[in-house]
Design goal:
795 residues, mainly beta, Immunoglobulin-like, five-stranded mixed sheet, four-stranded antiparallel sheet
Length: 795
């Protein structure tokens, strides 16, 4: 196959696949909303007086003059919110590198970008984990976790790895330098010339994180400071910026001067020596450890000023937002919103505020007015005893309950905290109550190893705990606090009824509980299975009296139908008594003594996305929503074969494209879903993920679904010589966007249509001229789904 034809074929494939990640239409955007923390800034570019920031919460466009910003994330077309680097090319297009989703090209202007994504799976990138991007003449060069590569004429081209001369496959930075590109790896610095040969300037090998050039000097950021290589020199000269030496993660050039970003510090060298700019105050302000924080981005400005991005990638990628150094002092600009990206628990307050607990940054609430309010060290609050809360319960009396579950080696254990916040954002009137083991009436609080919490229909609070026989023998099972908070009742396999008989409870690590309409509690026991506890009612008298209780095993790990290696993680009970059971090896359905397994789909496109079922929620129609490690599923109430799937472009292209159709790709904020919560008065589902929260409007999802899978174009080929004047579309059920591209990738025509038989192309270009004969690629976009067709125009 000749070169020109190969290029055309590559273009067609590229458009067909990249079209799947195009920015969603209005209908999709109305169904999904994302809450993502953009505080860790890894790349900064200046364009038209605005700063473009690559963050862990998507792309932020910051306006320094007004100190305002816009945030663009996956609901505006990005395949990922984890951005690592960015650069503008000579055509004004923005290229963005992502942490695990390849490279994105943004054409147009903020808010109306055309988004095109490139991945290793479909486009041949060296890897999808992008560390750096840079413009090299008419090409783009990029660095990844598995080599480096080039974009030639906007399409991925040659790749470079250890097999053909790099010191290592792990490439941290690339630096175009005339007719060569310097490449920094974790085992050495080399360069690639225009002919593709990899050469090394010296025999010195060292790990390099960043590269820069000032005049006749090449600089490298190393584990021990910076290294410099003068033109014509035979070896590197190493400079320690501080004792003990700190690694340098970023470099930037200011005329003949240079900036270096390390851990907890920025260093500036205008040519007369290194000066230190510490960032410690900001690490404390935002609840971070400066020892782990890395300065990832520096953008020098005039007169010794600079913008700086930094953060701790080991703590849910939390950062210090954007810092402005004016030459003498630092100022911080905070992006107000969700306080951290990994969300552990969700619950709704009586005023319909959404409460969340995060991994390491305390708890926060999203008020009905759309404002975030947090309790953590960074917010100046020390009332919360722990910041990693696996227990989060907002009860119907207006109290919020928090507790941290620790590992066995971490003692003493943290207490159980109760907050009465008066349903406002005024800390001065908050009332905190702290409970330790033994506190309260009845049995007293018996465990601080909480995994989760729930409120029963009567208003009693159930705290579900993990067994710890090594450090806290007996601290396990369930601890129930009565509605009036006057008494505790401990429930575990060692509990006895009034006659002294042991309860029939079979295990003490309780992951989840749900309540049936007949006064039964269904317990998800991690290694045992699911038991139904029938206390005779949830009023305190019945619940605290074990004498007439019955315990029934309805599903058991091993001999009871659940896989012998599975852990039971979640349970949900339908109004007709059907019990759904989530495990780390799939979903089970129990009805009238029969147990059915619904595994992850691996071939038919109608099963679960992932194997690990982390949470289950029934909506108001009693459809089941399933949170897995690879996305969200919905199983229709009355049809087990009606399973909808919602995952991310990254998960689909790397793990799911052989088993699920392209329609499974959605605007969910991240594929790893950990918890679900249904709004108390609206049909809105909230999904806590490893990287933020998705808000899904259920009616919008159903009403505005557009099926483009069967759409076709006619006549094809189009022959004006026989009287064809238009290209038309068939088999659509709602509004779609139709885009026509030539084989060079240029947009020829664009039109939105909504009815079968509508004309989508009058055979002219965007400029109004007559389109030439040839092959055209047609992209048809519906509600987050895209198909691509080929059309021939023969004049």
């Amino acid at each position: 196959m000749g070169t020109a034809l190969s290029r055309k074929y590559a273009l067609i494939v590229c458009l067909a696949i990249a079209g799947a990640w195009a920015a969603p239409g209005a209908s999709a955007a109305s169904a999904w909303k994302s809450y993502v923390d953009p505080s860790l800034v890894s790349g900064i570019e200046l364009r038209g007086g605005d700063l473009y920031l690559a963050t862990t919460g998507g792309l932020v466009v910051f306006h320094p003059g007004s100190e305002t910003y816009e945030q663009y994330n996956n609901t505006t077309g990005l395949p990922s919110n984890f951005l690592t680097c960015l650069v503008f090319d000579d055509k004004g297009r923005l290229w963005v590198g992502t942490e695990s989703s390849g490279i994105v090209r943004l054409d147009g202007t903020p808010g109306s970008w055309k988004v095109t994504s490139f991945s290793s799976t479909f486009h041949g990138l060296s890897d999808d984990r992008i560390h750096d991007v840079a413009v090299w003449g008419d090409s783009l060069v990029y660095a990844t976790e598995n080599g480096a590569g080039l974009f030639v004429e906007d399409f991925p081209g040659p790749r470079f790895s250890a097999r053909n001369g790099l010191p290592s496959d792990i490439v941290h930075a690339v630096l175009p330098d005339g007719d060569r590109v310097w490449i920094a790896t974790d085992e050495g610095v080399v360069y690639v010339d225009k002919l593709g040969f990899i050469l090394s300037p010296t025999d010195t090998l060292f790990a390099a994180h960043a590269l820069a050039r000032t005049g006749t000097v090449l600089w490298a950021g190393t584990e021990q400071g910076v290294a410099r290589l003068d033109d014509g020199a035979t070896d590197w000269v190493f400079e320690v910026l501080e004792t003990p030496a700190r690694p340098v993660f970023s470099l930037a050039v200011d005329g003949e001067g240079i900036w270096a970003g390390s851990r907890g510090r920025v260093f500036q060298n205008p040519g007369s020596g290194w000066a230190q700019i510490p960032l410690f105050d900001f690490y404390g302000k935002y609840g971070l450890n400066n020892v782990n924080c890395e300065v990832r981005a520096i953008l020098p400005m005039e007169s010794g000023a600079a913008f700086v991005g930094a953060g701790d990638p080991s703590v849910q990628r939390r950062g210090v937002h954007l810092l402005d150094f004016d030459g003498s002092r630092l100022t911080g600009f905070a992006f107000n919103g969700i306080p951290a990206n990994r969300v552990l628990r969700l619950d709704f307050d009586v005023d319909e505020s959404l409460w969340i607990s995060t991994a390491g940054f305390g708890v926060s609430k999203l008020t009905p007015e759309g404002e975030w309010f947090s309790y953590n060290v960074a917010a100046g609050d020390d009332s919360l005893s722990a910041t990693f809360n696996l227990t989060l319960l907002a009860d119907t009396q207006g109290s919020k309950w928090f507790a941290r579950q620790r590992y066995p080696s971490q003692v003493p254990l943290t207490p159980l905290d109760e907050l009465q916040d008066q349903l406002d954002t005024d800390r001065s009137n908050d009332v905190w109550t702290r409970r330790q083991v033994g506190d309260g009436g009845g049995d007293g609080l018996g465990s601080l190893r909480n995994l989760s919490a729930a409120e029963d229909p009567y208003g009693n609070r159930w705290f579900l705990s993990e067994e710890d026989q090594q450090n806290a023998p007996g601290w396990w099972g369930i601890n129930i606090l009565s509605r009036d908070k006057s008494a505790w009742r401990q429930v575990n396999p060692a509990s006895t009824d009034p006659s002294g008989q042991l309860l029939a409870m079979k295990a003490g690590t309780v992951f989840d509980v749900d309540f049936g309409g007949n006064g039964d509690a269904y317990l998800a026991l991690k290694s045992y299975g699911v038991q139904r506890w029938s206390p005779g009612g949830f009023d305190t008298e019945s619940l605290f009296d074990f004498s007439d209780d019955t315990w029934t095993t309805i599903a058991r790990v091993g001999s009871g139908g659940i896989s012998s290696t599975a852990f039971v993680l979640s349970v949900a009970v339908r109004s007709d008594g059907v019990v759904w059971i989530g495990t780390d090896e799939g979903l089970y359905r129990y009805e009238s003594g029969f147990l059915n397994h619904i595994p992850a789909d691996r071939g038919f496109g109608n099963g679960l996305l992932g194997t690990e079922v982390n949470d289950l929620v029934l909506d108001r129609e009693e459809n089941l929503w399933v949170a897995t490690e690879l996305g969200l599923n919905r199983i229709a109430r009355d049809n087990l074969n009606d399973i909808a799937s919602y995952t991310t472009p990254t998960a689909w292209q790397t793990q799911l494209n052989l088993f699920f159709p392209l329609s499974a790709v959605s605007e969910i904020v991240h594929e790893d879903c950990e918890r679900l919560a249904l709004h108390p008065s609206k049909d809105i589902l909230y999904i806590a993920t490893l990287n933020g929260i998705s808000e899904l409007d259920l009616p919008s999802l159903e009403e505005e679904n557009t099926d483009v899978s069967g759409a076709f174009l006619y006549p094809n080929p189009v022959r004006p010589s026989r009287g064809d004047t238009n290209l038309k579309i068939g088999d659509i059920n709602a509004e779609v966007l139709v885009e026509i591209f030539n084989v060079e990738g240029d947009l020829v025509h664009r039109k939105t249509v909504s009815r079968e038989g509508d004309s989508v192309w009058d055979l002219t270009t965007e400029s109004g001229s007559v389109a030439a004969s040839g092959v055209y690629v047609v992209r048809i976009s519906g509600d987050g789904t895209v198909i691509t067709k080929m059309v021939s125009l023969i004049r």
